[in-house]
């Protein structure tokens, strides 16, 4: 597994340690179970990426957690830390991946 695809939703809370919590909708990949996705997201070094008007935008989250919504759909919460949540539009297709690349 190289990437976990998702769709950005909105900031739902402000966590004292993780900063603004961005709610993202997991886009299921039939090749992987939710348990495999959860294990992937627990590893260090994740970045959130999406295509912006000027190219790919990269955000390094402080924390990534899995969650289950009230409708029992799996989801992901991304703690943005010092990153400005205004940089991340709602409703865009994004992905989480492990990366050592420089930030945009």
Overview of this protein structure:
This protein has 104 residues and is mainly beta. The chain has a single domain (3-94), classed as Elongation Factor Tu (Ef-tu), domain 3, CATH 2.40.30. 9% of the residues lie in helices and 49% in strands. It has one helix and seven strands, in the order ββαβββββ. It has one helix at 34-42, and strands at residues 3-15, 19-26, 46-52, 55-59, 63-68, 74-79, 93-98. Strands 4-3-7-1-2-6-5 form a seven-stranded antiparallel β-sheet, covered by helices on one side. The longest helix has 9 residues, at 34-42. The radius of gyration is 13 Å and the shape is globular. The protein starts with a strand and ends in a 6-residue tail after the last strand. 19% of the residues are buried.
The side-by-side strand order for the widest beta sheet comes to: 4-3-7-1-2-6-5
User: Count of DSSP helices?
Assistant: 1
- What's the gyration radius in Å? 13 Å
Name of the CATH first level = Mainly Beta
Strand content is over 45%
* Main sheet attributes: strand count, strand direction, barrel closure: 7 strands, antiparallel
Mean residue pLDDT: 86
Molecular shape: globular
Instruction: Return the domain count.
Output: 1
Class inferred from helices and paired strands: mainly beta
